[in-house]
Write a structure and sequence with these properties.
Strand order of the largest sheet of chain B: 1-2
Radius of gyration of chain C: 17 Å
Radius of gyration of chain B: 21 Å
Helix content of chain C: over 70%
Shape of chain B: globular
CATH topology of chain C: Helix Hairpins
Oligomer: heterotrimer
Chains: A mainly alpha, B mainly alpha, C mainly alpha
Number of strands of chain B: 4
CATH class of chain C: Mainly Alpha
Largest sheet of chain B: 2 strands, antiparallel
Largest interface: A-C, 85 and 73 residues
Number of helices of chain C: 3
Distance between the termini of chain B: 44 Å
Order of helices and strands of chain B: HHHEEHHHHEEHHHHHH
Shape of chain C: elongated
Protein backbone atom coordinates (compact mmCIF):
# COMPACT_ATOMS: atom_id res chain seq x y z
CA UNK A 1 0.00 0.00 0.00
CA UNK A 2 2.66 2.49 0.97
CA UNK A 3 4.85 1.22 -1.86
CA UNK A 4 2.14 2.19 -4.31
CA UNK A 5 2.03 5.73 -2.97
CA UNK A 6 5.81 6.03 -2.96
CA UNK A 7 6.06 4.95 -6.60
CA UNK A 8 3.05 7.06 -7.61
CA UNK A 9 4.42 10.21 -5.99
CA UNK A 10 7.84 9.67 -7.57
CA UNK A 11 6.27 9.13 -11.00
CA UNK A 12 4.06 12.21 -10.81
CA UNK A 13 6.77 14.44 -9.37
CA UNK A 14 9.32 13.32 -11.93
CA UNK A 15 6.86 13.86 -14.80
CA UNK A 16 5.96 17.32 -13.54
CA UNK A 17 9.62 18.20 -13.36
CA UNK A 18 10.19 16.81 -16.87
CA UNK A 19 7.83 19.33 -18.37
CA UNK A 20 9.03 22.05 -16.05
CA UNK A 21 12.79 21.86 -16.62
CA UNK A 22 14.59 24.24 -18.92
CA UNK A 23 17.62 22.01 -19.49
CA UNK A 24 16.74 19.06 -21.76
CA UNK A 25 19.33 16.77 -20.18
CA UNK A 26 17.69 17.08 -16.78
CA UNK A 27 14.35 16.37 -18.45
CA UNK A 28 15.67 13.12 -19.88
CA UNK A 29 17.16 12.03 -16.56
CA UNK A 30 13.96 12.83 -14.67
CA UNK A 31 11.98 10.84 -17.22
CA UNK A 32 14.26 7.88 -16.54
CA UNK A 33 13.43 8.24 -12.85
CA UNK A 34 9.74 8.30 -13.75
CA UNK A 35 10.16 5.11 -15.78
CA UNK A 36 11.87 3.47 -12.83
CA UNK A 37 8.86 4.31 -10.65
CA UNK A 38 6.49 2.93 -13.28
CA UNK A 39 8.53 -0.23 -13.43
CA UNK A 40 8.07 -0.59 -9.68
CA UNK A 41 4.31 -0.16 -10.17
CA UNK A 42 4.32 -2.95 -12.75
CA UNK A 43 6.03 -5.21 -10.23
CA UNK A 44 3.29 -4.36 -7.73
CA UNK A 45 0.76 -5.32 -10.40
CA UNK A 46 2.29 -8.81 -10.69
CA UNK A 47 3.74 -8.08 -14.12
CA UNK A 48 7.48 -8.76 -13.80
CA UNK A 49 7.94 -9.13 -17.52
CA UNK A 50 6.46 -5.69 -18.25
CA UNK A 51 8.60 -4.21 -15.46
CA UNK A 52 11.84 -5.62 -16.79
CA UNK A 53 11.23 -4.78 -20.44
CA UNK A 54 10.21 -1.28 -19.38
CA UNK A 55 13.72 -0.87 -17.96
CA UNK A 56 15.48 -2.61 -20.83
CA UNK A 57 13.57 -0.94 -23.69
CA UNK A 58 12.47 2.43 -22.37
CA UNK A 59 14.99 3.42 -19.75
CA UNK A 60 17.88 1.54 -21.25
CA UNK A 61 17.54 2.10 -24.98
CA UNK A 62 15.07 4.83 -25.93
CA UNK A 63 16.31 7.27 -23.32
CA UNK A 64 19.93 6.64 -24.34
CA UNK A 65 18.84 7.61 -27.84
CA UNK A 66 17.27 10.81 -26.51
CA UNK A 67 20.38 11.57 -24.50
CA UNK A 68 22.63 11.07 -27.53
CA UNK A 69 20.53 13.43 -29.64
CA UNK A 70 20.45 16.07 -26.92
CA UNK A 71 24.22 15.87 -26.52
CA UNK A 72 25.02 15.82 -30.21
CA UNK A 73 22.77 18.76 -31.00
CA UNK A 74 24.01 20.55 -27.91
CA UNK A 75 20.33 21.30 -27.50
CA UNK A 76 19.95 24.84 -26.35
CA UNK A 77 17.43 26.02 -23.87
CA UNK A 78 14.32 27.01 -25.72
CA UNK A 79 14.40 30.58 -26.93
CA UNK A 80 10.99 32.07 -27.39
CA UNK A 81 9.66 35.54 -27.76
CA UNK A 82 8.24 35.18 -24.28
CA UNK A 83 9.96 36.52 -21.22
CA UNK A 84 12.69 34.09 -20.19
CA UNK A 85 12.36 34.71 -16.48
CA UNK A 86 8.74 33.65 -16.27
CA UNK A 87 8.32 29.90 -16.06
CA UNK A 88 6.81 28.31 -19.21
CA UNK A 89 3.69 27.16 -17.39
CA UNK A 90 2.67 30.69 -16.40
CA UNK A 91 3.24 32.59 -19.61
CA UNK A 92 0.32 34.38 -21.24
CA UNK A 93 -1.27 33.51 -24.52
CA UNK A 94 -1.41 30.02 -26.05
CA UNK A 95 0.56 28.49 -23.21
CA UNK A 96 -1.99 29.34 -20.62
CA UNK A 97 -4.67 27.95 -22.90
CA UNK A 98 -2.70 24.73 -23.30
CA UNK A 99 -2.22 24.35 -19.58
CA UNK A 100 -5.94 24.98 -19.02
CA UNK A 101 -6.80 22.31 -21.57
CA UNK A 102 -4.63 19.78 -19.76
CA UNK A 103 -6.29 20.55 -16.44
CA UNK A 104 -9.69 20.17 -18.08
CA UNK A 105 -8.63 16.80 -19.49
CA UNK A 106 -7.52 15.66 -16.06
CA UNK A 107 -10.79 16.71 -14.47
CA UNK A 108 -12.79 14.86 -17.11
CA UNK A 109 -10.74 11.69 -16.76
CA UNK A 110 -10.97 11.61 -12.97
CA UNK A 111 -14.73 12.18 -13.18
CA UNK A 112 -15.10 9.37 -15.71
CA UNK A 113 -13.06 6.98 -13.60
CA UNK A 114 -14.96 7.64 -10.39
CA UNK A 115 -18.34 7.58 -12.06
CA UNK A 116 -18.51 3.86 -12.75
CA UNK A 117 -20.62 1.98 -10.25
CA UNK A 118 -20.26 1.52 -6.51
CA UNK A 119 -17.61 -1.18 -6.27
CA UNK A 120 -14.19 0.40 -6.37
CA UNK A 121 -12.73 -2.29 -8.56
CA UNK A 122 -10.93 -4.72 -6.30
CA UNK A 123 -8.26 -6.82 -7.90
CA UNK A 124 -8.97 -10.45 -8.61
CA UNK A 125 -7.21 -12.96 -6.36
CA UNK A 126 -4.59 -13.12 -8.99
CA UNK A 127 -3.23 -15.88 -11.00
CA UNK A 128 0.16 -14.56 -11.93
CA UNK A 129 0.75 -14.67 -15.66
CA UNK A 130 4.20 -16.14 -15.98
CA UNK A 131 6.65 -15.09 -18.62
CA UNK A 132 6.20 -18.49 -20.20
CA UNK A 133 2.49 -17.88 -20.67
CA UNK A 134 3.21 -14.51 -22.27
CA UNK A 135 5.73 -16.07 -24.61
CA UNK A 136 3.40 -18.86 -25.60
CA UNK A 137 0.62 -16.38 -26.31
CA UNK A 138 2.95 -14.11 -28.27
CA UNK A 139 4.09 -16.84 -30.60
CA UNK A 140 0.74 -18.52 -31.21
CA UNK A 141 -2.16 -16.13 -30.91
CA UNK A 142 -0.23 -12.95 -31.66
CA UNK A 143 2.33 -14.33 -34.07
CA UNK A 144 1.20 -12.10 -36.93
CA UNK A 145 1.46 -8.80 -35.00
CA UNK A 146 4.83 -9.99 -33.72
CA UNK A 147 6.19 -10.41 -37.23
CA UNK A 148 4.64 -7.14 -38.36
CA UNK A 149 6.36 -5.41 -35.43
CA UNK A 150 9.70 -6.66 -36.63
CA UNK A 151 9.05 -5.14 -40.05
CA UNK A 152 7.96 -1.92 -38.34
CA UNK A 153 11.28 -1.74 -36.52
CA UNK A 154 13.14 -2.40 -39.75
CA UNK A 155 11.25 0.43 -41.44
CA UNK A 156 11.97 2.74 -38.51
CA UNK A 157 15.68 1.89 -38.65
CA UNK A 158 15.93 2.54 -42.37
CA UNK A 159 13.87 5.71 -42.02
CA UNK A 160 15.99 7.07 -39.21
CA UNK A 161 19.21 6.44 -41.12
CA UNK A 162 17.86 8.07 -44.28
CA UNK A 163 16.42 11.09 -42.51
CA UNK A 164 19.44 11.88 -40.42
CA UNK A 165 22.27 11.48 -42.89
CA UNK A 166 24.14 14.33 -44.49
CA UNK A 167 22.93 15.45 -47.89
CA UNK A 168 25.53 15.05 -50.61
CA UNK A 169 26.00 18.30 -52.55
CA UNK A 170 22.89 20.44 -53.05
CA UNK B 1 13.33 -10.24 13.85
CA UNK B 2 13.29 -13.88 12.99
CA UNK B 3 16.60 -15.67 12.57
CA UNK B 4 15.92 -15.91 8.84
CA UNK B 5 15.60 -12.12 8.51
CA UNK B 6 18.78 -11.53 10.47
CA UNK B 7 20.58 -14.11 8.35
CA UNK B 8 19.41 -12.42 5.15
CA UNK B 9 20.52 -8.98 6.27
CA UNK B 10 23.91 -10.40 7.24
CA UNK B 11 24.11 -12.16 3.87
CA UNK B 12 23.42 -8.90 2.02
CA UNK B 13 26.16 -7.11 3.95
CA UNK B 14 28.45 -10.06 3.39
CA UNK B 15 27.92 -9.98 -0.37
CA UNK B 16 28.54 -6.23 -0.43
CA UNK B 17 31.79 -6.51 1.49
CA UNK B 18 32.91 -9.49 -0.56
CA UNK B 19 32.38 -7.55 -3.77
CA UNK B 20 34.53 -4.73 -2.44
CA UNK B 21 37.19 -7.23 -1.45
CA UNK B 22 37.04 -8.87 -4.84
CA UNK B 23 37.66 -5.52 -6.52
CA UNK B 24 40.70 -5.00 -4.29
CA UNK B 25 41.93 -8.52 -4.98
CA UNK B 26 41.48 -7.96 -8.72
CA UNK B 27 43.71 -4.90 -8.54
CA UNK B 28 46.49 -7.05 -7.13
CA UNK B 29 45.86 -10.01 -9.44
CA UNK B 30 45.83 -7.77 -12.49
CA UNK B 31 49.15 -6.17 -11.70
CA UNK B 32 50.84 -9.40 -10.67
CA UNK B 33 49.60 -11.42 -13.64
CA UNK B 34 50.47 -8.56 -16.02
CA UNK B 35 53.95 -8.47 -14.59
CA UNK B 36 54.45 -12.22 -14.88
CA UNK B 37 53.16 -12.19 -18.46
CA UNK B 38 55.60 -9.45 -19.26
CA UNK B 39 58.46 -11.25 -17.47
CA UNK B 40 58.95 -8.79 -14.68
CA UNK B 41 58.18 -8.92 -10.98
CA UNK B 42 55.20 -6.66 -10.33
CA UNK B 43 54.39 -5.39 -6.85
CA UNK B 44 56.67 -7.05 -4.29
CA UNK B 45 57.55 -4.35 -1.78
CA UNK B 46 54.35 -3.86 0.19
CA UNK B 47 53.71 -6.90 2.35
CA UNK B 48 54.82 -10.45 1.56
CA UNK B 49 54.91 -10.87 -2.24
CA UNK B 50 53.22 -7.51 -2.55
CA UNK B 51 49.91 -8.79 -1.17
CA UNK B 52 49.15 -5.54 0.66
CA UNK B 53 49.50 -3.50 -2.55
CA UNK B 54 45.73 -2.92 -2.95
CA UNK B 55 45.59 -1.39 0.52
CA UNK B 56 48.38 0.99 -0.44
CA UNK B 57 46.48 1.85 -3.64
CA UNK B 58 43.27 2.57 -1.78
CA UNK B 59 45.02 4.78 0.75
CA UNK B 60 46.71 6.67 -2.06
CA UNK B 61 43.41 7.23 -3.84
CA UNK B 62 41.72 8.41 -0.66
CA UNK B 63 44.31 11.05 0.03
CA UNK B 64 44.36 12.59 -3.43
CA UNK B 65 42.73 15.93 -4.00
CA UNK B 66 39.16 15.83 -5.27
CA UNK B 67 39.07 18.05 -8.35
CA UNK B 68 36.16 19.38 -10.28
CA UNK B 69 36.50 21.47 -13.47
CA UNK B 70 34.79 24.81 -13.02
CA UNK B 71 32.74 24.53 -16.19
CA UNK B 72 31.54 21.06 -15.32
CA UNK B 73 27.91 20.50 -14.48
CA UNK B 74 28.27 19.88 -10.75
CA UNK B 75 25.23 17.73 -10.16
CA UNK B 76 25.81 15.40 -13.12
CA UNK B 77 29.54 15.30 -12.42
CA UNK B 78 28.83 13.98 -8.94
CA UNK B 79 26.00 11.70 -10.08
CA UNK B 80 27.83 9.77 -12.80
CA UNK B 81 30.21 7.67 -10.63
CA UNK B 82 27.32 6.99 -8.24
CA UNK B 83 25.24 5.55 -11.09
CA UNK B 84 28.14 3.41 -12.28
CA UNK B 85 28.92 1.99 -8.86
CA UNK B 86 25.26 1.45 -7.89
CA UNK B 87 24.43 -0.47 -11.07
CA UNK B 88 27.54 -2.60 -10.67
CA UNK B 89 26.56 -3.66 -7.15
CA UNK B 90 22.88 -4.04 -7.96
CA UNK B 91 23.49 -6.47 -10.79
CA UNK B 92 25.10 -8.96 -8.43
CA UNK B 93 22.08 -8.94 -6.13
CA UNK B 94 20.20 -11.56 -8.16
CA UNK B 95 23.14 -13.86 -8.82
CA UNK B 96 23.16 -17.05 -6.75
CA UNK B 97 26.50 -18.31 -5.56
CA UNK B 98 25.71 -21.48 -3.69
CA UNK B 99 23.12 -24.09 -2.89
CA UNK B 100 20.60 -23.65 -0.09
CA UNK B 101 22.14 -23.60 3.32
CA UNK B 102 20.90 -23.91 6.86
CA UNK B 103 23.98 -22.35 8.39
CA UNK B 104 24.91 -25.56 10.20
CA UNK B 105 21.44 -26.06 11.59
CA UNK B 106 21.06 -22.66 13.23
CA UNK B 107 18.26 -21.63 10.88
CA UNK B 108 14.79 -23.21 11.06
CA UNK B 109 14.48 -23.44 7.28
CA UNK B 110 17.03 -23.29 4.52
CA UNK B 111 18.12 -20.03 2.94
CA UNK B 112 19.16 -19.34 -0.59
CA UNK B 113 22.72 -18.14 -1.02
CA UNK B 114 21.48 -15.21 -3.05
CA UNK B 115 20.55 -11.69 -2.03
CA UNK B 116 17.23 -11.69 -3.87
CA UNK B 117 15.53 -14.65 -5.44
CA UNK B 118 13.74 -13.37 -8.51
CA UNK B 119 12.13 -15.59 -11.10
CA UNK B 120 13.23 -13.34 -13.97
CA UNK B 121 16.82 -13.03 -12.77
CA UNK B 122 18.43 -13.23 -16.22
CA UNK B 123 16.36 -10.30 -17.47
CA UNK B 124 17.14 -8.28 -14.35
CA UNK B 125 20.89 -8.69 -14.90
CA UNK B 126 20.44 -7.58 -18.48
CA UNK B 127 18.31 -4.58 -17.44
CA UNK B 128 20.81 -3.31 -14.90
CA UNK B 129 23.65 -3.79 -17.40
CA UNK B 130 21.80 -1.53 -19.80
CA UNK B 131 21.39 1.09 -17.06
CA UNK B 132 25.11 1.26 -16.42
CA UNK B 133 25.54 3.01 -19.78
CA UNK B 134 24.24 6.18 -18.15
CA UNK B 135 27.10 6.46 -15.70
CA UNK B 136 29.59 6.58 -18.56
CA UNK B 137 27.67 8.86 -20.88
CA UNK B 138 26.93 11.35 -18.10
CA UNK B 139 30.56 11.29 -16.97
CA UNK B 140 31.63 12.12 -20.50
CA UNK B 141 29.10 14.92 -20.91
CA UNK B 142 29.38 16.59 -17.54
CA UNK B 143 33.15 16.90 -17.59
CA UNK B 144 32.80 19.47 -20.34
CA UNK B 145 36.06 18.40 -22.03
CA UNK B 146 36.51 17.09 -25.53
CA UNK B 147 38.37 13.93 -24.56
CA UNK B 148 35.75 13.03 -22.02
CA UNK B 149 32.82 13.67 -24.34
CA UNK B 150 34.30 11.62 -27.16
CA UNK B 151 35.26 8.82 -24.81
CA UNK B 152 31.84 8.82 -23.19
CA UNK B 153 29.89 8.72 -26.45
CA UNK B 154 32.12 6.03 -27.91
CA UNK B 155 31.95 3.90 -24.77
CA UNK B 156 28.18 4.08 -24.58
CA UNK B 157 27.75 3.36 -28.31
CA UNK B 158 30.00 0.33 -27.88
CA UNK B 159 28.07 -0.87 -24.85
CA UNK B 160 24.66 -0.64 -26.43
CA UNK B 161 25.93 -2.34 -29.60
CA UNK B 162 27.30 -5.35 -27.75
CA UNK B 163 24.19 -5.62 -25.60
CA UNK B 164 22.45 -7.18 -28.59
CA UNK B 165 24.74 -10.18 -28.93
CA UNK B 166 24.85 -10.41 -25.12
CA UNK B 167 21.08 -10.76 -25.04
CA UNK B 168 21.01 -13.26 -27.90
CA UNK B 169 23.62 -15.45 -26.19
CA UNK B 170 21.45 -15.36 -23.06
CA UNK B 171 18.40 -16.28 -25.13
CA UNK B 172 20.16 -19.36 -26.52
CA UNK B 173 20.81 -20.61 -23.00
CA UNK B 174 17.20 -19.91 -22.02
CA UNK B 175 16.02 -22.13 -24.86
CA UNK B 176 17.88 -25.08 -23.38
CA UNK B 177 17.30 -24.27 -19.73
CA UNK B 178 13.58 -23.48 -20.00
CA UNK B 179 13.62 -21.00 -17.16
CA UNK B 180 14.53 -17.38 -16.49
CA UNK B 181 15.65 -17.98 -12.93
CA UNK B 182 19.41 -18.33 -12.51
CA UNK B 183 18.99 -20.82 -9.69
CA UNK B 184 16.89 -23.15 -11.81
CA UNK B 185 19.31 -22.84 -14.72
CA UNK B 186 22.18 -23.91 -12.46
CA UNK B 187 20.18 -26.80 -11.05
CA UNK B 188 19.50 -27.99 -14.58
CA UNK B 189 23.24 -28.52 -14.91
CA UNK B 190 23.64 -30.89 -11.99
CA UNK B 191 24.86 -34.41 -12.57
CA UNK B 192 27.00 -35.91 -15.29
CA UNK B 193 26.78 -37.76 -18.57
CA UNK B 194 28.31 -41.22 -18.49
CA UNK B 195 29.53 -40.42 -14.99
CA UNK B 196 32.45 -38.39 -16.32
CA UNK B 197 31.39 -35.33 -18.34
CA UNK B 198 29.45 -32.78 -16.27
CA UNK B 199 26.17 -31.59 -17.69
CA UNK B 200 27.35 -28.06 -18.26
CA UNK B 201 25.65 -25.91 -20.88
CA UNK B 202 29.15 -25.15 -22.12
CA UNK B 203 29.17 -28.45 -23.97
CA UNK B 204 25.73 -27.84 -25.45
CA UNK B 205 26.43 -24.23 -26.39
CA UNK B 206 30.14 -23.67 -27.05
CA UNK B 207 29.51 -20.89 -29.54
CA UNK B 208 27.08 -19.28 -27.14
CA UNK B 209 29.70 -19.27 -24.41
CA UNK B 210 32.23 -17.61 -26.70
CA UNK B 211 29.71 -14.99 -27.79
CA UNK B 212 28.69 -14.31 -24.20
CA UNK B 213 32.24 -13.91 -23.01
CA UNK B 214 33.25 -11.63 -25.88
CA UNK B 215 30.15 -9.49 -25.40
CA UNK B 216 30.83 -9.41 -21.68
CA UNK B 217 34.36 -8.16 -22.25
CA UNK B 218 33.02 -5.47 -24.57
CA UNK B 219 30.25 -4.54 -22.13
CA UNK B 220 32.70 -3.98 -19.31
CA UNK B 221 35.00 -1.93 -21.54
CA UNK B 222 37.99 -4.21 -21.05
CA UNK B 223 40.75 -4.98 -23.50
CA UNK B 224 40.81 -5.70 -26.32
CA UNK B 225 37.68 -3.54 -26.45
CA UNK B 226 38.81 -0.73 -24.16
CA UNK B 227 39.40 1.94 -26.77
CA UNK B 228 37.16 4.45 -24.98
CA UNK B 229 39.37 4.47 -21.93
CA UNK B 230 42.71 3.76 -23.51
CA UNK B 231 45.54 5.81 -22.16
CA UNK B 232 47.37 6.12 -25.42
CA UNK B 233 44.41 7.22 -27.48
CA UNK B 234 42.14 9.47 -25.52
CA UNK B 235 44.06 10.46 -22.42
CA UNK B 236 41.72 8.50 -20.19
CA UNK B 237 38.45 8.81 -22.03
CA UNK B 238 35.37 9.46 -20.00
CA UNK B 239 37.08 9.53 -16.61
CA UNK B 240 39.81 11.99 -17.57
CA UNK B 241 38.59 14.75 -15.30
CA UNK B 242 37.90 12.58 -12.29
CA UNK B 243 40.29 12.10 -9.41
CA UNK B 244 40.46 10.52 -6.00
CA UNK B 245 37.34 8.74 -4.81
CA UNK B 246 35.21 9.42 -7.90
CA UNK B 247 37.87 7.77 -10.03
CA UNK B 248 38.00 4.96 -7.50
CA UNK B 249 34.25 4.49 -7.95
CA UNK B 250 34.61 4.06 -11.71
CA UNK B 251 37.47 1.65 -11.16
CA UNK B 252 35.38 -0.24 -8.62
CA UNK B 253 32.40 -0.34 -10.96
CA UNK B 254 34.51 -1.78 -13.75
CA UNK B 255 35.94 -4.58 -11.62
CA UNK B 256 32.60 -5.45 -10.08
CA UNK B 257 31.02 -5.56 -13.53
CA UNK B 258 33.74 -8.02 -14.48
CA UNK B 259 32.94 -10.14 -11.44
CA UNK B 260 29.22 -10.06 -12.25
CA UNK B 261 29.77 -11.08 -15.88
CA UNK B 262 32.03 -13.92 -14.72
CA UNK B 263 29.52 -15.02 -12.09
CA UNK B 264 26.63 -15.06 -14.57
CA UNK B 265 28.80 -16.92 -17.11
CA UNK B 266 29.65 -19.48 -14.44
CA UNK B 267 26.01 -19.94 -13.55
CA UNK B 268 24.83 -20.17 -17.12
CA UNK B 269 27.56 -22.18 -18.81
CA UNK B 270 29.88 -23.75 -16.26
CA UNK B 271 27.44 -25.36 -13.89
CA UNK B 272 27.49 -22.82 -11.07
CA UNK B 273 28.29 -24.42 -7.78
CA UNK B 274 28.03 -28.05 -8.84
CA UNK B 275 31.21 -30.08 -8.80
CA UNK B 276 32.65 -33.44 -7.75
CA UNK B 277 34.08 -34.45 -4.39
CA UNK B 278 32.35 -31.76 -2.37
CA UNK B 279 28.93 -31.87 -0.68
CA UNK B 280 26.24 -29.50 -1.96
CA UNK B 281 26.52 -27.13 0.97
CA UNK B 282 30.17 -26.43 0.13
CA UNK B 283 29.36 -25.76 -3.51
CA UNK B 284 30.37 -22.13 -3.21
CA UNK B 285 33.99 -23.25 -3.25
CA UNK B 286 33.54 -24.59 -6.78
CA UNK B 287 31.74 -21.37 -7.67
CA UNK B 288 34.71 -19.34 -6.46
CA UNK B 289 37.14 -21.48 -8.42
CA UNK B 290 35.18 -21.17 -11.64
CA UNK B 291 34.69 -17.42 -11.30
CA UNK B 292 38.40 -17.02 -10.59
CA UNK B 293 39.20 -18.97 -13.74
CA UNK B 294 37.10 -16.62 -15.86
CA UNK B 295 38.57 -13.56 -14.16
CA UNK B 296 42.05 -14.88 -14.88
CA UNK B 297 40.97 -15.25 -18.52
CA UNK B 298 39.86 -11.60 -18.50
CA UNK B 299 43.25 -10.41 -17.20
CA UNK B 300 45.09 -12.70 -19.58
CA UNK B 301 43.18 -11.27 -22.53
CA UNK B 302 43.96 -7.72 -21.51
CA UNK B 303 47.69 -8.17 -21.43
CA UNK B 304 47.96 -10.44 -24.44
CA UNK B 305 45.83 -8.98 -27.20
CA UNK B 306 46.32 -5.62 -28.88
CA UNK B 307 43.55 -3.13 -28.73
CA UNK B 308 40.86 -2.88 -31.41
CA UNK B 309 40.48 0.48 -33.11
CA UNK B 310 37.02 1.96 -32.60
CA UNK B 311 35.66 1.36 -36.10
CA UNK B 312 37.07 -2.18 -36.12
CA UNK B 313 35.40 -2.75 -32.78
CA UNK B 314 31.99 -1.57 -33.95
CA UNK B 315 32.28 -3.45 -37.23
CA UNK B 316 33.13 -6.61 -35.33
CA UNK B 317 30.15 -6.19 -33.03
CA UNK B 318 27.57 -5.54 -35.72
CA UNK B 319 28.89 -7.45 -38.71
CA UNK B 320 30.42 -10.53 -37.12
CA UNK B 321 29.19 -11.14 -33.59
CA UNK B 322 25.53 -10.29 -34.13
CA UNK B 323 24.98 -12.59 -37.15
CA UNK B 324 26.84 -15.40 -35.36
CA UNK B 325 24.63 -14.91 -32.31
CA UNK B 326 21.47 -15.00 -34.42
CA UNK B 327 22.58 -18.15 -36.24
CA UNK B 328 23.49 -19.72 -32.90
CA UNK B 329 19.98 -18.98 -31.63
CA UNK B 330 18.39 -20.51 -34.72
CA UNK B 331 20.54 -23.63 -34.55
CA UNK B 332 19.79 -23.99 -30.83
CA UNK B 333 16.07 -23.66 -31.49
CA UNK B 334 16.27 -26.28 -34.23
CA UNK B 335 18.21 -28.56 -31.90
CA UNK B 336 15.71 -28.19 -29.08
CA UNK B 337 12.87 -28.88 -31.50
CA UNK B 338 14.55 -31.97 -32.93
CA UNK B 339 15.92 -33.52 -29.78
CA UNK B 340 13.01 -32.40 -27.65
CA UNK B 341 15.07 -32.04 -24.44
CA UNK C 1 -6.30 -1.36 -0.02
CA UNK C 2 -5.13 -0.34 -3.44
CA UNK C 3 -7.91 -0.72 -5.97
CA UNK C 4 -8.07 -0.45 -9.73
CA UNK C 5 -9.31 3.13 -9.38
CA UNK C 6 -6.05 4.20 -7.81
CA UNK C 7 -4.09 3.02 -10.82
CA UNK C 8 -6.56 4.59 -13.26
CA UNK C 9 -6.42 7.96 -11.53
CA UNK C 10 -2.61 7.83 -11.48
CA UNK C 11 -2.62 7.01 -15.18
CA UNK C 12 -5.02 9.89 -15.87
CA UNK C 13 -2.77 12.30 -13.99
CA UNK C 14 0.30 11.17 -15.94
CA UNK C 15 -1.58 11.45 -19.22
CA UNK C 16 -2.68 14.99 -18.40
CA UNK C 17 0.87 15.95 -17.47
CA UNK C 18 2.07 14.62 -20.81
CA UNK C 19 -0.63 16.55 -22.65
CA UNK C 20 0.27 19.75 -20.81
CA UNK C 21 3.88 19.20 -21.83
CA UNK C 22 3.00 18.86 -25.48
CA UNK C 23 0.95 22.05 -25.46
CA UNK C 24 3.07 24.23 -23.30
CA UNK C 25 6.71 23.51 -24.11
CA UNK C 26 8.43 25.07 -27.08
CA UNK C 27 11.32 22.64 -27.44
CA UNK C 28 10.99 19.74 -29.86
CA UNK C 29 12.81 17.27 -27.65
CA UNK C 30 10.71 18.07 -24.59
CA UNK C 31 7.60 17.64 -26.71
CA UNK C 32 8.79 14.16 -27.71
CA UNK C 33 9.47 13.36 -24.05
CA UNK C 34 5.92 14.42 -23.15
CA UNK C 35 4.60 12.06 -25.81
CA UNK C 36 6.57 9.27 -24.14
CA UNK C 37 4.95 10.17 -20.81
CA UNK C 38 1.55 9.80 -22.43
CA UNK C 39 2.45 6.41 -23.88
CA UNK C 40 3.63 5.24 -20.47
CA UNK C 41 0.39 6.35 -18.84
CA UNK C 42 -1.50 4.23 -21.35
CA UNK C 43 0.80 1.28 -20.65
CA UNK C 44 0.00 1.56 -16.96
CA UNK C 45 -3.72 1.46 -17.72
CA UNK C 46 -3.30 -1.68 -19.81
CA UNK C 47 -1.30 -3.51 -17.16
CA UNK C 48 -3.73 -2.46 -14.42
CA UNK C 49 -6.71 -3.75 -16.38
CA UNK C 50 -4.82 -6.90 -17.23
CA UNK C 51 -4.32 -7.54 -13.54
CA UNK C 52 -7.93 -6.68 -12.75
CA UNK C 53 -9.28 -9.15 -15.28
CA UNK C 54 -6.49 -11.69 -14.62
CA UNK C 55 -5.81 -11.59 -18.34
CA UNK C 56 -2.38 -11.91 -19.88
CA UNK C 57 -3.35 -9.76 -22.86
CA UNK C 58 -2.65 -6.60 -20.88
CA UNK C 59 1.07 -7.31 -20.80
CA UNK C 60 1.13 -8.38 -24.43
CA UNK C 61 -0.39 -5.11 -25.60
CA UNK C 62 2.19 -3.32 -23.44
CA UNK C 63 4.90 -5.23 -25.30
CA UNK C 64 3.59 -4.00 -28.63
CA UNK C 65 3.06 -0.42 -27.41
CA UNK C 66 6.66 -0.29 -26.22
CA UNK C 67 7.92 -1.51 -29.57
CA UNK C 68 5.88 1.08 -31.42
CA UNK C 69 7.08 3.78 -29.02
CA UNK C 70 10.68 2.78 -29.72
CA UNK C 71 10.17 3.00 -33.46
CA UNK C 72 8.38 6.33 -33.12
CA UNK C 73 11.09 7.78 -30.90
CA UNK C 74 13.79 6.76 -33.37
CA UNK C 75 12.07 8.30 -36.37
CA UNK C 76 10.99 11.38 -34.40
CA UNK C 77 14.54 12.04 -33.25
CA UNK C 78 15.87 11.57 -36.78
CA UNK C 79 13.36 14.21 -37.92
CA UNK C 80 14.50 16.52 -35.12
CA UNK C 81 18.11 16.14 -36.26
CA UNK C 82 17.17 16.88 -39.86
CA UNK C 83 15.14 19.93 -38.83
CA UNK C 84 17.91 21.21 -36.57
CA UNK C 85 20.42 20.87 -39.37
CA UNK C 86 18.21 23.01 -41.54
CA UNK C 87 17.20 25.79 -39.19
CA UNK C 88 19.62 25.66 -36.23
CA UNK C 89 16.71 25.83 -33.83
CA UNK C 90 14.65 23.40 -31.78
CA UNK C 91 11.71 25.74 -31.39
CA UNK C 92 8.62 24.59 -33.29
CA UNK C 93 7.73 28.23 -33.90
CA UNK C 94 10.75 28.49 -36.20
CA UNK C 95 9.25 26.07 -38.72
CA UNK C 96 6.17 28.04 -39.68
CA UNK C 97 7.00 28.86 -43.31
CA UNK C 98 3.98 26.86 -44.52
CA UNK C 99 1.59 28.90 -42.42
CA UNK C 100 -0.83 31.11 -44.35
Amino acid sequence: MTLFYVFAVVAILASLLVIGQRNPIYSVLLLIASFGALSGLYVLLDAPFAAVIQIIVYAGAIMVLFLFVVMLLNAPHEDTEYDERVHPLFRPGPMRFGAALAVALLAELVWAVNKGGGEAGQFAGGSVASVGAIGRSLFTEYAFPFEVTSILILVAMVGAVVLARHEKGA
Amino acid sequence: MTPLLIAQIVLTLFVFIMLLNSAAAMVYVERKVAALLQQRLGPYLVGPKGLLQPIADVIKLMFKEELRPRAADAFLFALAPIISATCAFAAFAVVPFGADTTLFGWLPGSMHLQVAEVNVAVLVVFAIASMSVYGIVLAGWSSNSKYSLLGGLRASAQMISYELSYGLALASVLLIGNSLSLRELVNAQAGTWFGVIPRWFLFLQPVGFAIYLISGIAETNRAPFDFPEAEQELVAGYHTEYSSMSFAMFFLAEYINMVTVSAVATNLFLGGWHGPFLPESLGWIWFLLKVSAILFFYVWMRWTLPRYRYDQLMAFGWKVLLPVAVVNLLVTAAGVLYFGS
Amino acid sequence: MVTLNHYLVLSAVLFAIGTAGVFVRRNLITILLSIEIMLNAVNLTFVAFGRYAADVNGQIIVFFVMTVAAAEAAVGLALVIALFRNRESLNPDAFTSLKW
